[in-house]
Amino acid sequence: MTGLEFSILATDGAARRGKLTTAHGVIDTPAFMPVGTAATVKALTPDQVAQTGAQVVLCNTYHLMLRPGADRIEALGGLHRFMNWPGPILTDSGGFQVMSLASLRKIDEEGVTFRSHVDGSAHALTPERCMQLQHQFGVDITMALDECTPFPATREDATKSMRLSMRWAKRCKAAFVPRPGHGLFGIVQGSTFADLRAESAAALREIGFDGYAVGGLAVGEGQEQMLATLDVTVPHLPADRPHYLMGVGKPDDIVEAVLRGIDMFDCVLPTRSGRNGQAFTRQGALNLRNARHATDPAPLDPLMDCPASRDYSRAYLHHLVKANEILASVLLTWHNIAFYQTLMRDLRSAIESGRLNEFAARFLEDYRRPKAEEP
Amino acid sequence: MTGLEFSILATDGAARRGKLTTAHGVIDTPAFMPVGTAATVKALTPDQVAQTGAQVVLCNTYHLMLRPGADRIEALGGLHRFMNWPGPILTDSGGFQVMSLASLRKIDEEGVTFRSHVDGSAHALTPERCMQLQHQFGVDITMALDECTPFPATREDATKSMRLSMRWAKRCKAAFVPRPGHGLFGIVQGSTFADLRAESAAALREIGFDGYAVGGLAVGEGQEQMLATLDVTVPHLPADRPHYLMGVGKPDDIVEAVLRGIDMFDCVLPTRSGRNGQAFTRQGALNLRNARHATDPAPLDPLMDCPASRDYSRAYLHHLVKANEILASVLLTWHNIAFYQTLMRDLRSAIESGRLNEFAARFLEDYRRPKAEEP
Predict the structure, then answer these.
(1) How many other β-carbons are positioned within 10 Å of the β-carbon of residue A35?
(2) Do A118 and A144 belong to one domain?
(3) Residue B307 vs residues A330, B281, B335: alpha-carbon distances, Å
(4) By residue range, what is the domain housing residue A12?
(5) What are the tens digits of pLDDT across the range A332-373?
(6) Which of A147, A190, A230, B127 could form a disulfide with B172 if both were Cys (CB 3.0 to 4.6 A apart)?
(7) Are the Cβ atoms of B40 and A327 closer than 8 angstroms?
(8) Distance from CA of A179 to the nearest CA of B (A)
(9) A29 dihedral zone (left: phi>0; alpha: psi -120 to 50; beta)
(10) What are the Cα distances from residue B152, in Å, to A105, B165, B188, B216, B254?
């Protein structure tokens, strides 16, 4: 496939510094994609998102197919225009959210049927429908429909689930409409079983995708098992294509995964935590609700190039959180996304200069050092 | 008093185009002050507020004295630094909110005692304490403590209440610490009784203030009686000092009041309405929750120099409101404040060019024309 150009500019161990070129712009990798579930990165304007250095956002097919609907978005000129985000957009397949949010789910060979958590209406999601929806959105990166295997899973269940996802992946590839600057990613499943992961990766390679995602992780297995699964999965992914670890993660998860050859990430953590009064720093996460911040004139990080990190005291942020002010959500989300983007920029620089191990060791030591009382 | 320089650049009938110079910058009048109750114009960053053209914000002494407290704000460098708003700030006296929000209120000659709506703690507000609090905040414009006479009031109650406010005004003047660029405003009371308003204005003139506010309006008397009260009040205010109509109002209220010689306004309407899905336009207020906006690709106002007004379709705003997204509050508040600031700029231009009556007639006709179904 030639939908998305991907070039690797530098490597450092298994880690790669790349450039993924889409119809709506370039994504420097390793990249973190802020989550914009319902066509908005919650609490931020697109300008604020872009100011953090984020180049691509992820939206959720499940939410958008239910509200406002793919026909509506298409009629309004596509998702980019609808949400006023001119850069690249990736949408997930909807499969994961169907399993976590919808009711009366029924999964079979054909696909999945369910009822909307918004209004109870009945819907179906098949590989073909999933491709059509994302085509209507007009997104740059389309994800194949898969079943996110629940954790823990027996070997038998994991095998059955993975093989269903692989058959769906093939149908997705057949239904996807290729066009320049637009690409389709397949998703490796197989739970924590090394041979199933290898089988899944081989099946996807055989079909051929623009990028390869690792799914079914960050679902309760813990960091150690997640990283062990990456160790036995990433080597089976085509080296010349982007590797995307779905739904991950905490800053230290990301550093560990980049060391293992992952190029793309998404996670609700920085946005959701921001709305809950938490701020990420190099010294770990802070809870701004904590009384010890009430009199602190220091900003979250005076060296970061983000107004939210630099121009407001922790005392003021504490006040906003306590008073349930919307601006608390805005500023903490903004800072958190900027923190993640700063981390990604640092990781890219470290790979370019061949000092990733040094950077990662130092970052992880600072980040994981036991804290007095947070959060 | 010489704390605040006020120069009148042009007049048109009773209307004035002025410049009020404070320690933190110039306020072009007629001016609308967005309300930043708890040291934040709800949902907006200070940069967004400034981008609308707003030059001054109003904060509420009652809220800030309770949380985070005046000592805390003073220790953190004052209210400007605390909320990262470098421009002029006006604080109200706290009296109005004590009456509407606090419990166990007791008012006597000395002042008012009450319990906090936040945590039930006991507090007292006297004219002297009120001056001290606003001094600690470091605001540019301090408001005298008054009793906002409830509406309707008997002549006897209105007289008693107004005269208490006038005795408090004298104590405020005595307690206020004059310094360059900082000023104290007195507040005319007297309900809807013309002779009481005249008596109150005379009492304030006798004391001498940097500016003169008209209080006790927009409390249920209706637009007609409000304007009639302005007609019998403004002529008694010193012509060379700013005139501030507190808590007003709807766009058409503001146009009518400017025609009658009012220079300053504040109101929660644009911010509160924004959080409730309403947008102000020249054709009246729109309710973005209304299904008729669901497919409308038009922005709120493509000619306004505000991203929120220009860069997002009504269909997208409808979607955000329906999905309870924070960005709905952000964008609609931003647009509404920008709409108010555009109106003030238009009013200032119209006065400068001697065409205020023409502008006002046209604006009021458009704004008041009966609408199909809104809100």
Answers:
(1) 20
(2) yes
(3) 17, 15, 8
(4) 5-267
(5) 999 999 999 999 999 999 999 999 999 999 999 999 988 755
(6) B127
(7) yes
(8) 26
(9) beta
(10) 60, 17, 17, 10, 22
